[in-house]
Specification:
The chain is 34% helix and 24% strand. It contains 14 helices and 14 strands. The chain folds into 2 domains: 228 residues, Aminopeptidase (3-Layer(aba) Sandwich), CATH 3.40.630.30; 167 residues, Gcn5-related N-acetyltransferase (GNAT) (Aminopeptidase, 3-Layer(aba) Sandwich), CATH 3.40.630. The longest helix is centred in the middle third of the chain and has 21 residues. Helix 4 runs antiparallel to helix 11. The protein is globular. It is an alpha+beta fold. Strand 2 and strand 3 form a beta hairpin. A 7-stranded mixed beta sheet has the order 1-2-3-4-5-14-6, sandwiched between helices.
Length: 406
């Protein structure tokens, strides 16, 4: 596809502007992007490769406008595809409850108060990544995006630009966005547990957990052991149990203080169908009834905990969350994995189990040069981590705000 062909993708979006030394930047819709070899190769070194982005676009967030930046060479060849999406963002979504209550009162009179049409670069259901696999290519692509993203956002009628939840390892690469008026603030971090060197769960418990906490865990495990036997099955295809899985997911979703994208049954089914090499569904049954599940994805020697569901009619009584985590750690060690990374929230029990934080960053700017300085000033009060007191107890909490090494 040439640049001139891509200019016809849509009449209401500014599609390209040559960047002589750093490539051209264009915008395409999904049908156009999926024809490109660059899209098929995007994120191939990540657990959430291009297949995952397609599943998300098809099964959840139907009100999002999914688009794709095409980063091109001077000859018009697309070398990289970076997904983004458009939504109406609630700027107060991550602030403490007292602020949200105040906003709710204002919105009775002014329904659109602090909702801004936003262009988000990254994944609608998970952390963001740069699609190229080498550091040099990532730097090249980041510079191309930072040079022209504000112009393209204005053409999309977006007032706000957000690079959504990029891992801290990109801080050096993405510093070009800071030079162009963006502010970096922490998002709710993932967590990481190093399980290398442990023979089994008991070895981990004895070496990684202090004696007082270790005894607490054993008491929790006894509560589950005192109930009817619980059986674990690990599968790649969840379709036979999808109704039970989704019901458990909804129980956890309803109890969450911070609610993000709401998944659908089709999301889980398609993950198993299209990504069997990555997907692992952990299913726990008691007396034949599903009482817990966890969707995990694998990449290399790391297992990633994505979503969990629990039967709260028994979960608190038998400490089911800790029972689930024990089984996942045991299975991971037995199958040769060296670390476990977990999605955000539920920080208190993860702290107890010796996880450390895996910071994620938001890069934010307003497209108006007049409003952007004001936004940068107030962003530290709007960032979401301040509403989670458990984060400050992690030994590497300072990494949430740390600058990249020179």
């Amino acid at each position: 596809m040439t640049i001139s062909e891509e200019a016809a993708v849509s009449s209401d979006i500014g599609l390209r502007e040559p960047i002589p030394s750093r490539g051209a930047l264009a915008v395409a819709d999904r049908a156009e992007a999926e024809k490109l070899q660059a899209w098929k190769a995007a994120f191939h070194s990540q657990r959430k490769d291009s297949r995952y982005y397609e599943i998300v676009a098809e099964t959840i967030c139907p009100d999002f406008n999914f688009r794709y930046f095409l980063i091109q060479d001077e000859d018009g060849r697309t070398r990289t595809v970076q997904p983004f999406f458009i939504l109406d963002q609630d700027v107060l979504a991550g602030v403490p409850a007292r602020w949200q209550k105040l906003a709710a009162k204002i919105r009775r009179i002014w329904p659109r108060f602090l909702f801004i049409r936003t262009l988000m670069v990254g994944c609608a259901a998970g952390e963001g990544h740069l699609p190229s696999s080498t550091a040099a290519a990532q730097q090249r692509d980041a510079e191309a995006l930072s040079n022209h993203i504000s112009r393209l956002a204005r053409q999309q009628r977006a007032g706000l630009i957000v690079l959504k939840e990029f891992p801290a390892r990109y801080r050096g690469t993405l510093s070009c966005f800071l030079q162009r008026g963006f502010a970096r603030i922490p998002s709710m971090p993932m967590t990481r547990l190093d399980i290398s060197g442990f023979k089994d769960f008991d070895d981990y418990l004895s070496k990684a957990i202090k004696s007082k906490r270790r005894n607490e865990f054993r008491r929790k495990f006894k509560a589950a052991a005192g109930s009817a036997p619980i059986e674990l099955e690990v599968v790649t295809d969840p379709s036979e149990a999808i109704d039970e899985i989704y019901a458990l997911y909804l129980q956890v979703f309803a109890r969450s203080k911070m609610q993000f994208e709401k998944l659908t049954p089709e999301y889980f089914i398609e993950i198993g169908r299209r990504m069997p090499d990555k997907a692992r569904f952990f299913l726990w049954r008691q007396n034949g009834k599903l009482i817990a599940f966890s969707l995990c994805l694998v990449e290399g020697d790391t297992l990633y905990g994505e979503y969990i569901g629990l039967d709260y009619s028994i979960a608190l009584d038998i400490h089911l969350y800790f029972y689930v985590m024990r089984d996942i750690i045991s299975w991971s060690i037995a199958n040769g994995y060296k670390s476990i990374e977990s999605s955000g929230l539920s920080y208190a029990p993860k702290l107890q189990m010796a996880h450390v934080l895996a910071p994620l960053d938001l890069y934010v700017r307003h497209t108006s040069p007049l409003i952007n300085p004001i936004l940068k000033f107030v962003l530290p009060w709007l960032e979401p981590t301040g509403a989670e007191p458990a984060l400050k107890q992690f030994k590497n909490y300072d990494e949430l705000w740390a600058s990249p090494p020179h």
